[in-house]
Design a protein that fits this description.
The protein is of the alpha+beta class. The chain contains 21 helices and eleven strands. It has a six-stranded mixed β-sheet. The protein has a three-stranded mixed β-sheet with strand order 1-3-2, with helices on one face. It has a two-stranded antiparallel sheet with strand order 4-5.
Amino acid sequence: MGTPSVSAIGLRVRERRRALGITQAAMAREVGISASYLNLIESNKRAVGGALLSRLARRLDLDVDLLTGAVERRLSDDLRELPADPLFRDIALDPQSAAELVARFPDWARAVLRVYRAYLDGNESVAMLSDRLNRDPLLQESVHRMLTHITSIRSTAEILDEVPDLESAQRRRFETTLRSESTALSEAAQHLVSYFEQGDLDHRAMAASEEVDEFIIAHRNWFPALEDAADELRSTLDALERPTLDAAVLEYLASSHGIRVTSGEDTAAGIFRNQCRLDDDRLTFLPNAPATTRRFQMLRVAAERGYDDLLRQCCDDPRLTSPAARYRARRALASYVAGAVLLPYQRFLEDAETNRYDIEILRQRYDAGYEQVCHRLVSLRDPKAEGIPFAFLRADPSGHISKRFPLFGFPLPRYGHACPLWNAFTAFQTPFRVVRQMSEFESGRRFLMISRTVTKRAGAFHEQPVLFAVMIACDSLHADRTVYAEGIDLTARDAAVRVGSTCRLCARTHCQQRQEAAIAAVGG
């Protein structure tokens, strides 16, 4: 995560210690340092990190991110992105003043972000409805039927109102027409309402996604209780003594949860997420789902059914303010357990270090997917045995970022497209090959980016494969611990590609890749 600000930590340690009524001598003794060294820390004369930082945080009953100011930095980074939205084009917002707003009025800063996310959520809903109104043939047919029934009802009503001397038989015919057209109109309207309600089930609220991201980032993607659950589940599967892990999971799902696993030919029968569909007692995969996906999704379902109470307890968090957010968080944490079962923490960390974080070797050794290995590398955050801190990004060819996990000093945009010079996007030019890039941001910090394309579903003959680029990135200080730094002069000025976060916030005015003008105040 980089070395946090000395002054920020020293001030927070001193203020929190005094608030708890702990003397310097007692505090120093309990965290295993001398009183004079603690005095130097609180006087902003010594840096602190690693195990000592964790001990200080535990004794002060504070999250490490709160002690280091990482929470405020994330909030500030999110606020800095807001001026990139054309909505604020005519307002002279200085992105650099975001940190001042967070420092002075953190609750106001959170309120601004919450309102902005609600605005984005509303825009997404409007765009979805507009697209359906303009393009959906079934919807257009329903609207046409309704207009036809309304026209018929209006014409019949006008005749009944304006022609008082109709014969009884004629009047009865018109009244019958009026009733039948009214009934048909009512049915068409109900069908339309049901259609929109069903569509709403598929609408993923942006606000919920943002909350889940913030929840995972706040925990540094490290959940000790879920690591313990994964160890327990792995022991349960090993005790079944099946020849393969797949066979053990199949037996576990059937015997413990009454779930049978099948392959389905009819993809129109329902919604398939992650190439599978879970009903009450059946898990159905697409016929062309690869073995790594089947294994991972079976383990995810095993975690959801076997550790539901634990997952719900972990999601009892004030950051998750809606049922949609908690549902998405439970699925994310169940996937965390699945990854931890496939890639046990200590063994995987040792293999990663031994093989210098070569993802291809790790993928083959554990028979796992490329993205699954990258996810696990990002979660190696146990303070007692930590791997290289990595950022994570997944994007499609349009530049849409569908997954993100930031790193201090490595800005991942929330609300727009990232810099086109990142090799997460140039990776699409060489599909399924790992590409590396040393990148330098305007701050002068350098990061090693490692990217590769992956397919989420192997396309049948008449289908296009679903293609993504997966990128992990680490600070250049850790780059030499990876195989991907071989042959790169990490100190050479010309070894790094000069990049930004997103065009609207980048001051590199002469960049040939620029897609939008920079905000005037950026870099001020």
